[in-house]
Amino acid sequence: MIWILLILFVFTEAFLRLFATPSEMWDHIVRYVLSDVIINTILLVSISSFLASFIGFLAAYIVTVYDFRGRKIFSLLLYLPLAIPPYIASYIYSHMLGYTGIIQTFFRNQWKITVDPNWFTYSAMQMGIFVFTITLFPYVYITAKGYMQKYLGNYLETARTLQRGHLNILLTIALPLATPAIFAGFTLIALEVLSDFGVVMYLGIPAFSTAIYRSWISLGDFDSALRLSSILMIFVVVLLLYQHMMRKPNSISMHTRIRPLKRIRLTGFQETFIITLFVIVLMVSLLIPVSQLLLWANVSFVNIRWNQFGEMLFNTLTLSTGVSIVIVLIALMIANYTRLSKSWLAVLSSKITLLGYSIPGSVVAMLVIFFFITLKQVIPINTHTTLTMLIFGLILRYLGLGYQNIESGMRKIGLKFNEASRLLGKNYGQSLISVDLPLLMPSLFAAFALVFIDVIKELPLTLNLRPFNYHTLATQVYQYASDERVVESAIPSLIIIAISALLLWQVIRWVIKEDN
Amino acid sequence: MKRLFIFVAVALTVLAGCGPKPQTNRQVNVYSARNYDVDKNMFAAFEAETGIKVNLIEGKGDELLERINREKADSVADVFMTVGGEHIYFAQQNDLLQDLNTAAISKFMDENLYGKNWVAITQRARVIVYDKIRITNPTIQTYEDLIDSQYSGKLLVRSATSSYNIALLAAMIQREGIEKATAWAAGVVSNFARTPTGNDRDQSKAAVAGLGDYAIMNTYYIGTMSVSSDAEEVAVAAKLGVIYPKNTHVNISWAAIVKGSKNSAEAQLLIEYLVAKQQQTIYTRQNGEFPVRDDVAPSDLIQSWGSFEAEDIDYEQLGAYVIEAVKIFDQVKWQ
User: Fold this and answer.
1) CA dist B267 to B31, B64, B101, B115, Å?
2) What superfamily does domain B124-249+308-331 belong to in CATH?
3) Is the ipTM beyond the 0.85 threshold?
C-alpha cells in the first residue's frame, strides 16, 4: 500500500496538470502536433500489438496442439527474441537494408550488381511495426501457451470427437478460449510500444514518447509534457481496466478438471510447412539479428574501449538481479493484498503499478529527480554517490510487469489451497509461505526473468539517475549508438542479449519442468 | 556461442585487473553530454597527469542541464560539458554557470568561441554532401539553393527532432528572421527525397545509394565514418563530396563551471587542459572535430575539404531561437 501511495504521489503531479490553465505552447501542440502523434501512436501500437499477438498466439497454438520434428526445441527458442532490445533490432535491420548493409554490399561486391536501392526503402512506420512485432511476440506466446496447455485439453477431445477441422478448432475453440491470455500479452506489448523511445526516435516516427520529450526538452514546456503524459496515462488506464474486465467470464473454467492434451502428429507436407514457418520466424527474430551483431563484433573488437568493461558487466548483473528480486518481492505483497481484498480500490491500485511501465522512461526519470529533490528537504539522502534514485526509478517503472505475472499466477492457484491449509489449522501467513509460495514459484521466476531482461536493456532511467562513474552495458550501447557508431555497439549489445537469453532459457526450462 | 564466452572471459579478466586505484583528495565532478571514448581517455590522462580524479556522469545535454537546474543549490556538478551552443542560453538564463578565468584561453581563440562563463572545446560544421563520383559538378552553393524547385525529390535530411537541425534553423532565424527561416524549412520539406528517417550517417549513405542527390550532415560524422570499423562506411565516406554553403553553420561543444562548484579550481584546470594544444590535436585527429585554437591545424581530412566562411553566430543568444525553430518544424510538417 505504501508503495502505491508513493507511485500515486509521483504521478499526481502529472495528472494535476490536466486541470491547470494550458500554456500558450499547448495551443501550438494541439494545433500542429497532437493529431499526428495520436494517429501515429494508435497505428504503431495497434498494428504491432496485433501482428505480434497473431504470431505469438499461432506459434503457441501450433506447439501446444501439434507434434512435429523439433517441436521441443522450437517451443523453447520462441521465447528468446524477447532478449533482443527493440532499439537494437531497429539499428540492425535499418543497417542491413541500407546501402552499406550486408544485402546491398553482397550484390555489389560479390556479383558486381548494383541493385536498385528503392527496393530496400520502407517507411519509418513499417520498420517500427516490423521491429516491435519480431521482438515482442513472445509476450503473447508465453501467456497463450501457458493458458492453452492447461485448459485446451478439455475442449479439444470433444471437438475432435465431433470431427471438427483444424481451422475450425483454431478459430471457434482455441481463439475464444485463449482470448483473455492473448489480451494479457497484448497489453504488455502495447505498453512496451507506448513507452518506447529508442525505436521511434531513431526511425523518426512522431509518437507520444517523442512528443513528450520534445515539448519538455526542446520547447522547454514541462507543463505540456506532463499534460501529454497524463493523456497517455488515461489511455493506459482504460486499456488496463478493459483487460481486467475481459478475463472475468473465463474464471469459471479454471475450476474444471484439467485433462492432459494429446498432440496431433503432423507428417509429410504439413510437417514441412510448419517447420519452415517456424524457421522463418526464428531466422527473422533471432538468427539474423544475432549473426549481424556477431559480424559487427568481429570487426569492432579492436576499435572499442575495453577499460572498465568488467566493471560494466558487474554493474549490469548486480543492478538487474537486485532490482528484479526487490520487484518480485514487492509485487508479491501487492498481489497478495489484492487477492484478499476484492474492492474496486484494490483493483485500481493494482493497475496503478502498471502506469510506470507505460510512460516514457525519461519522464519517469525527471519525476523521480523532482521527488528526491523534494524528499531531500525533509531527510538528507545522498543521491550522487549511491544507487538510491536509480533503484527507486527502476522499481517504479517495472513493478507493473512483475506484478502482472505474479497476479496471474495467483489467480491460477486461487484461494482453495490456502483455505484447505487453514482448515488444517495453519493461519493465513503460514499457509501463504508453506502452500501458496511453492505453487507460485514458476510465476515468481517468470516475473523475475521478464523484469530482469527489461532492466538490463533499460536506458533513460539508468542514464539519468545513475551516480558518478557508474556505467552499464546498456549505457555503453547508448554511448556508441548515440554517436552513430552502431557497429561499435555490437559487443555490449551481444552481451546483453546473451545474458538475457541464457536467463530466459534456464528459467523457462525450469518453469516448464515445474508446471508439468 | 563460443565467441560470446570469449567476450565474457575477456571482460572478467579486465574486471580482475581492476585493482584499487591510488586515492587522492582532489577531484572534479563532470556532467558530460560528450559520450565519447576520446573524452574518457582524455579524462584518464588528466587524472594521471594532475592527480585530480575525474568523476563522470554522462547523458543527454538538455537532460543534464535540466537536472543541474532542478538540483541548483544542491548540485555537486563542477563541470558541465555538452554538444550544442544553443544550450548556453538556457544555462545563463537560469544562472547555472560560474565565471571562468579566460585570460589564458583568450590569447589563441576567436572571440565568439568563449564568454565570461563558458568556453568552446570543439567545433563542427553542418554541411551538404553528395556522391562525388555520380555528381561531378555540384550546383548547390548556399543553404537557400536547397529549396530551389529543381531539387524536388532530391534532398536527404534527418528528422527535426535532431538537435543539429534545431540549431541550424535557430541560427538561421537569428541571422535572417523568422519569415525567411520558415520559408526555407517549408522549401526543404517540399524537396524531401523521403520522409526523414535515420541519423546523419544514414543520410550520406542514402545519397551515395542514389536515393537523393544532396544530404545535410555534420562534418563530425564524415570524420568518424572514415575511421569506422565497418569497411563499407569507410568506402561511403571516401565517396562524399563536401559543400560548405555560404554562411556555413558551425556549432560548438562547450564546457563551463557550474555555479556553486565546490571544486572550481580543479574545474578550471580541467577546462584549460581540454583546450590545450595537445588535446585539441587529439580532438581533431581522433574525433573528426575542428579545433578551437588558432594555432592547431585541423586534421588532414578536414583540410582536404577546403576552407569556408562560417556564419556569424552569437552562441549566447542562439538558444533564444530554439523554441521558434521547433515551432516552425512543426508548422511545416518536418517530422
Assistant:
1) 12, 17, 11, 16
2) Periplasmic binding protein-like II (3.40.190.10)
3) no
